[in-house]
């Protein structure tokens, strides 16, 4: 492989696709009106590890008897660039799924960043959020941990293991090391407690399962579960299976997305 000679100032020579594709700039690329359903909560998402968490959370709330958390779930096709349409950027200027609009009150509320969406829903409906101060702090520790840690798995390991045009040893080694360190960390944590924050299932379990549980299940990046030897993380594996068996998780994964149209 030839070594990259770094210019003094980087310039972008990538694709100039009108709608999709990475660019070094943020903001609206085209006008697009997103549909609104009748339900109080409007979710704009996709079946990725970040995207599945909102439907799982909303199905868990249903399971817990919350009747006011009805939702319409719309598909944002990030491959086609829907995240750069004007309405979506108006909800989430960062152009990443998932995003939520709560239209249940006098003024609508726009929420983005997955951990914030989970916290917003948990606080609004007073569910899946520990009450005891120390347990709540522990839950927050792990919820924020997921936000910081998962990009090393998705943007680092997953990208270089699966998506990169050529397999390169240096980045694959670097991110495999970090991903396995994280798996070991979770495995050690779950050796001593049934759920992420302690004795009870919480939004931290939803956030972490959607990345690390799916990785252990072999649902992310073909061949990666074997490559990472996920079966060696026994406690993490048992927790993964326990969460996967929850009816709300199964429903959240199976729920159908509505089309946003053209
Ligand atoms: N920190 C964000 C990350 C969300 C994220 O990375 N979403 C990805 C899909 S999993 C996305 O929308 N990518 C579109 C793009 O990068 O253009 C969160 O936790 O909500």
From TrEMBL:
InterPro entries, per the entry: Glutathione-S-Trfase_C-like, Glutathione-S-Trfase_C_sf, Glutathione_S-Trfase, Glutathione_S-Trfase_N, Thioredoxin-like_sf
UniProt domain GST C-terminal: residue ranges: 135-262
Pfam families membership: GST_C_2 (PF13410), GST_N (PF02798)
GST N-terminal domain residues: 42-129
Name this protein carries in UniProt: Glutathione-dependent disulfide-bond oxidoreductase
Source species: Streptococcus cuniculi
Lineage: Bacteria, Bacillati, Bacillota, Bacilli, Lactobacillales
